[in-house]
Amino acid sequence: MPLSPLVKKPLQATAAKLKRTGRALGKLKPQQVNPVQALQDIKARRIARRSASGLQLVLADRIDFVNPQHWDALAAQTVFLSRDYLRVLEAHAPDNLEPRYAMAYADGEPVAALLLQRVAVGGAQLRKPGGKKKLVDAPMAGLKEHLLVCGNLLVWGARSMALAPHADEGQLWHGICEAIYRLRRADKLDGQSDFALIKDLGLALDDVPPALRLLGYRSVETEPDMVLTLRPEWRSWDDYLASMTSGYRSAAKKLLKDCASAGLTIRLATAEEMAARADELHGLYGQVHNAQGLRMATLTPGYLPAMAAALGDRFRCRVVEAADGRWLGFVTSVNDGATTLGYYVGYDRPANADAPIYLTLLQSTVQDAIAFGSTRLSLGRTALEPKAKMGCKPEPLSCAVRHRVSALNWITTALTKTAEHDEPPERSPFKAAPVDAA
After folding, report:
1. What is the CATH number of domain 39-224+396-418?
2. pLDDT, tens digit (0-9, with 9 covering 90-100), for 38-47
3. How many CB atoms within 10 Å of residue 371?
4. In terms of Cα–Cα distance, which of 118, 79, 114 is closest to 296?
């Protein structure tokens, strides 16, 4: 006798949890260890952790305290290290986040520019609002920890450090870890940071620099960045649609038709409009943000409008507007050199149940990437399925983490081994690319 859906669904969910638990426990199986090699590794790590990198370091609390010429010479690699952006970040940072900066020099020549963030984490960042699990909420309510993040919690990818291409890689990573150590020690008066995190290396797990392992960092692979590679022949939205197979093209067009049938208009908003309606935008952002279980940093209402004003033509905001003028959704795009980022999104959840606001906004970022003249569109980690249907492919991202007490790093090692993430689905929405005539 077949099971009813009411019984079958909980059983499937339980079976999936058991499988995940089994995979996690399997990763913790003891491995064969060569005792001689293990002792050599312990000695090498001990020596490395107690040795300076040989680089000269400058540490700062504000971007205007560093040498602007030296910073700009390296930071031109990404708009998220530009002083225009970093001033916005300082003025409109989340309440629990404080930016820090470091520069490394080799014989007086700048070889690394780093954005770091000191982050206070409590139970509010780790639980969804309105949760009913009192046994979990009670102990988490008093949780208060500090992290020192080499990276930017408000963006993904390798956009928080700029390294000189000619510098020695091993020495550079040693210098980065030394800067993290010095900043952590300097901030001790404001509260101990037990964990240091190097965020979004933009590398597969196997490619993480061995210097990090030597200095006590443990690596973990996160969900990938979903990236659409733009074809040279795409000069407009219609070109993009024409390159898709009929099923995917019809689905993309239907999203626009459904929004139009609901009386919704999609248009670009100016920086002035964003500033005037900042609370409205923030409310839409909050409906998406508050549904997430892990919220390490929450945007302030002024952050996106200030970004729009500071970055000018490098920033776009599309809004979904109802017939009465209300904004029911928005998506922002940032031009970061050859890559466009489909950045923050927000939407009215009840309205999204009646019309495909989120999916329509998501695919509109393709128009922005084409308009910017980019060759890549980066859409980040979440919503893997709809991004795959747009033609995005996964690119690996990984992080490195270290506890301040070396003896406790075995806990970190266990956690990184058991970490899992969803795998993106395989989709092929495009026709074969045209072949140039010889």
Report:
1. 3.40.630.30
2. 566 666 666 6
3. 16
4. 118
